[in-house]
Amino acid sequence: MKIIDKYFPLISSIPEQQKSLFSGTRLASFFLAFIQFLAILYIVNQFQFEKSSGIIDYSPHIIVAFVVYNFFSVRYRPTLLFVFCLVIIYSAFGMLAGSFITVLGLGLIAICHLPIRFNFRLFLILLGTVALIVFRTEIIFIPWMTMSAMYLAPMFMFRLIIYLYEIKHGLLPVSKWQSVVYFFMFPNIFFLFFPIIDYKTYLKTYHNVADSEVWQKGIRWMLRGLIHVFCYRLLCFNLLIEPADVQDLTTLLQYMLVNYALILRISGIFHFIIGLLCMFGFNLPQVFDNYFLATGFVDLWRRINIYWRDFILKIFFYPIMFKYKKRIKNNLLPITMITVFVITWLLHSYQLFWISGVVYFKWIDVIFWMTIGICITIESVIVEKRALLGKNKEERSIIKKYCITIFRIIGMLVFMSVIWSLWNSKTIEDWLFVVSKSKNVSPKELLVIGIWLLLVVIAGVVVQIALKNSMVKKWFSLKPHQTKGLTLVSLSVIVLFSFKSAEQKMPFRLQQIIQNMHNSSPNIIEKRNSEVGYYDMLIEGDEEITIGIGGKSFKTLMIKRPYINAYYLTNDIMYRRMKANLKIEGIDHDFQSNSFGIRDKNYSVKKPSGTHRIALLGGSYQMGTGVNNDQVFEAIVEERINKEGIDSNYKQVEIFNFAAGGYYLLQQVELTNTSVFQYDMNALIYFAHTDERTKVVHFFANSIKRNLPLKYPFLEKIKAESGAKLYMSIMHIRELLLPYGDEIMKWGYKEIADKCKANGVIPVWAYIETTTEFVDNKEYSELKAYAESLGFVTLDLRNTYGKIDRKEIQISEWNTHPNVLGQRIIAEKFYNELKKNKTLIFKIKK
Amino acid sequence: MSLELNQVKETVKAFVKERFLKNSDDKELTDSTPLISGGLIDSILTMQLVVFLEEQFKFEFQAHEVDVDNLDSIDRIAAFVLKKVNG
Q: What residues of chain A, 131 to 170, have a C-beta less than 8 Å from chain B?
C-alpha cells in the first residue's frame, strides 16, 4: 500500500463524478453555491445572527475554507477540515489554550484506539473527564484551562459516547482523519449547543451525493435556520409577554403558546449548523421535522430533535430492551421508556453542566421530563397493543379525519405550551400562580377563542386537502437542488431587507418587522425577569458569563465569576453585604473593596479637616459592575473634583461609594440608619432609576419570600395589610404588594431625609435611567416633587447617554451595565450636576 | 436451516403489510421501500419486527444490530437474516 493511501485513504462513498473537480457543470454549480453562500453570510452579518457565537467574526475564514476545500482532492479534505478547525481554535483561544484543547482532544480520541482492553480505555477516559470537571467547576482555577474545558466538552460530551459504542461493536474508522474531524467540527466552536451527530450517519453521508445537491441543501437549510431565528425575534418583540402581564385566559394562552414557539431559535441554530456542514460535503439528515405539527406524543418524539432521539435509541433504548427482554416478560416497554426518560433528564443536566459549569437540580426539570416520558410511554403502549392485536382503524370520512388531525395538532400544541411554560418558570408556585389567572375568563373571551379555533380548523382542513393534490405533493417532494429558484428569490428578498434605503421605502408596519428582525439583543423580558430558560442558558450563558467567541479578545474568554465571592449573606433586610479588603481578578476587570466593606479606595474613619464627605447610595450601576474600581463614575468625579476644585469651602472631597449590586431603596434605608453616618458625612446622594417603584416592590417581595426579618414596623404593617404570606409564589406576593409601591417609596425617602436632617447631612436625590430603558418623565416628575418636598437637593441625570447607540456603552449583549465609556459619560453629567448645585451640596456643615 | 432470499422476503413482506401497514393509506410496499427512515415504522414497531424475525427465523439480534443498515427495507432485512442464519 502506498504511504498516501495509508495516511489519506480515498473515502469510498464518494460517487465517481466527484472526482472531476474542474468540470464545467461542477464549476457552474460551485459558482452559484458560492454566491448564495456569500449572501447567507452577508445576511448573518447584517442581521447579527448569533453575534456572540463568533460566526460573524469568522465568516471570511469560512468562505475561504469553502472555496479551498471544494477544490482540494477528496482524499485530503478531512485533513483540511481539521486544519481549518485548528485555525479557528488557535485564533480564538491563543497558543496555550489552543494547544491544550487540541492535544487533550486528540488524546481522548487516541485513548479510544489504544491496544488495551475496552474497559481500561473507558477508565482512562473517565480519568480525563474527572480532570476536566475539576477545571470546569473551577475547583482548580486556571483561567485558560477552565475556558478550554468549556469549549472542549461540547465536542466530546456526546460524540465520544457514540464513538466508543461503535468501536465496541466493531466499527472501525475508514480514515483516522475522519475520526478526528468527527470531533473537531468547526461549527462546534461557534455553537456549543450542538446536534448529536451519529458517527455511522456521519461516515455514510460524507460526500455520498453530488456536490451540487448537497450545496443546495446546505444553502436551503441555512436559510431556513435564519428564517426561524427571524420568526423568533418577531415573536419576542411583538407577542411575548411577561408572566406578570398574564391576567386572564387569553393572555395566559398568549404567554404559553408564544413561549413554546421560541423553540424556533434552537431549531434555527440547528438548521444553520447542519446547513453549514452540508457546504463541506456532509449530507446529514434533518434535525427537526415540523414539530409544531405533531399529532401525538410519539409523533412529537419522532419530530423534535431527531438526532437526540436516535442517540437515545441507539445507546439506551435498544440496549436496555435487549438486556431485559428475557427477564421482564410483562411491561418491558413502559419500564424501558421511563428509564430512558430518566436518562434523558440526567443527560440534559449533564449537557448544561459542561456548558454552564454549574450543576443544577430543579424539581421542575424532573416534572417536565417525567411528564413527557409518561405521556410518550402511555401512547407507545397503546400503539404497541394496537399493532399486536391488529386492530383496524375505524372508517371515517375524509373531512372528519382531517378535523381530527387538526384537533390533535392543536391539542399537542396546547399541551406542550403548558408543560414548556412550567419548564421555563423559576418555581412551581410561580407557574401555578400564572395558571390560576385562567379562571378570569368572560363569555366574550370564550367566544373569541372558539371562533379562532374554528378558523384554524377550517384552514387546517383546506391545507390538508390542498396537500393531497398531486401537483402540490410533487412540489413538496422536490429537493433543494430542484428548487434553486425559490432559494434565490428568498435570499434576494432578505438581502433587500438589509438595505436601509430599501427599508425606508416600505410600509411602516413592514419597516417595524424588519427592524425587529435586525434586533439581536436578548429578549428584554428575559433580561428583566432573569428568567433564563434551559435553552437560553445553553445558547447565551448568563449575566456573568456570555458564551461564544464572538467579538471577544482571548483574555475576555477566560472565565471567572468575579462577584460570586464578593458578598456574604446576612439574615436581615440587607440580604447581603460586601466583604471587606477584597481583591478579585474578574473577566476583564478587577474588583476591590476597602476595609469598610465598600467598593472604593481606603479612607480614614476620622474625617480629615477641610474635607467634604459624600455618601453615595446606589445599585450595580453606581458600584460599577464590569469595570475597574478607578473606572467607576464616582471615582472619576472624585478625582476630577479634587484636581479642578469645585467649592472654596473645602480643600478636598471624598465620595464614599456605598453602592452594591442588587441594592434597592429598603437596603439604602438600612445603610443610612446603620452604616453611613459613622464617617461624619456632609451629604448623602441617593440614586434612583427608572421603574423605581416596581424594583422596590420586587425586592420587598423577595425579602418576604426569603423570610428575612423586616425590622421596620412600617414594612411589617404593609406585609400584614397586603396579605402576603411566605408560602405564596413570589409573583403572587409581588402582585399583592404592588398597590403599596407608592407608599413604600415615600416611606423610604422620608426615612433617609429624616436621618440626614438629624445628622446635619444634606440629602441629595439623583435620577438616571438604565442603558436599556428610556426615561419615564411622569415617574421622574412625581419622584422629584416628592423628594424636593422632603428637602432633597435634586440632580437631573436624565438623558445622560444622549443619542449614542446604547450598545456602545454596554458591557456586552447580555450584560447591559455601563462599560468604561458609559461610566465616563455618566461621570461627565454627574460632575456637571454637582457643579450646578454646589452651593446647596457643598454648604458648610453646622 | 437453509433459507432462500425470496422466501425470506415474502415472509417479511407479509408480516410488515399485515402488522404495520394494515391501516395505512399507502399500502404499496416494495423491496426497497424505506421502512424506518421513511417513517413507516418507529422504534416500538421496530422491536415488534425484531421479535418476529427472531421467532420466525430462530436467531438472536444484538442491540447494536437494530439499525437502519439492517432493517430499513425488505431487501436489507432479508440480507441480514440470511447472514445471521446461514452464517
A: 165, 169
A535 touching chain B per CB within 8 A:
no
Residue A409 domain-assigned?
Answer: no
Alpha carbon of A327 to those of A150, A330, B53: distances in Å? 41, 9, 20
Largest alpha-carbon pair distance within chain B?
A: 38
Facing residue for A319 by CB, picked from B19, B48, B63: B63
Examine residue A482 and state whether it is found in any structural domain, yes or no.
no
Q: A156 in a domain, yes or no?
A: yes
pLDDT tens digit sequence for A351-401:
988 888 777 788 888 999 999 999 999 998 888 887 777 655 566 788 888
Q: Helix, strand or coil for residue A688?
A: strand
Would you say A551 and A57 are in contact if contact means Cβ atoms under 8 Å apart?
A: yes
Tell me which chain A residue has its CA closest to the CA of residue B22.
A392
Is B66 in the A-facing interface, judged by CB distances under 8 Å?
yes
Kindly state whether A388 is in contact with chain B, defined as any CB-CB distance less than 8 angstroms: yes
Number of domains in chain A: 2
- CA gap A460, A409 in Å, rounded: 10
User: Which chain A residues are Cβ-neighbours of B76 within 8 angstroms?
Assistant: none
Asked if residues A717 and A740 have their Cβ atoms less than 8 Å apart, the reply is no
Q: Which grid cell sits at A239? A: 407577542
Fold of B5-86: 1.10.1200
CB A513, CB A503: distance < 8 Å: no
Find all residues with CB under 8 Å of A272, minimum gap 6, and list them.
A49, A221, A222, A225, A226, A229
Cβ–Cβ gap A380/B23 under 8 Å: no
Asked whether the beta carbons of A205 and A283 are under 8 A apart, the reply is yes
Least Cα separation, residue B24 to chain A (angstroms)? 9
**8 Å CB contact between A527 and A772:** yes
The answer, for B86 touching chain A at a CB cutoff of 8 Å, is no
Q: What is the 3 state secondary structure string of A267-326?
A: HHHHHHHHHHHHCCCECCCCCCCCHHHCCCHHHHHHHCCHHHHHHHHHHHHHHHHHHHCC
Q: What is the pLDDT of residues A92-112, one digit of tens each?
A: 988 988 999 999 999 999 999
- Percent of chain A's residues with pLDDT above 70: 91
The neighbour count for residue A785, using CB atoms within 10 Å, is 10
Helix (H, G, I), strand (E, B) or coil at A396: coil
**Alpha-carbon separation of residue A219 from A37, A66, A213, A227 (angstroms):** 7, 13, 10, 12
In a domain, A79, yes or no: yes
Q: Please, which pLDDT band fits residue A325 given cuts at 50, 70 and 90?
A: confident
Q: Which residue in this structure is represented by grid cell 445622560?
A: A800
Note the ipTM here. 0.92
Residue A693 structural domain: 611-841
Strands A576-578 and A567-569 come out as antiparallel
Residue of A647, A711, A661, A656 whose CA lies nearest to A683: A656
Count of CB atoms situated within 10 Å of the CB of B28: 8
Say yes or no to pLDDT of A88 above 90.
Answer: yes
pLDDT value at A53 more than 50: yes
pLDDT in tens, A184-224: 999 999 999 999 999 999 998 998 888 999 999 999 999 99
**pLDDT at A528 exceeding the cut of 50:** no
A328 touches chain B (CB under 8 A): no
**Confidence band, pLDDT 50/70/90 cuts, at residue B3:** low
- Integer-rounded Cα Rg, in Å, for chain B is 12
DSSP for A629-642?
GGGSHHHHHHHHHH
User: What's the burial of A292, exposed, middle or buried (CB within 10 Å: 0-12/13-18/19+)?
Assistant: middle
- Residue A665 sits in a domain whose CATH number is 3.40.50.1110
A contacts of B20 (beta carbons < 8 Å): 387
* Domain end among A219, A251, A278: A278
Q: How far apart are alpha carbons A94 and A558 in whole angstroms?
A: 11
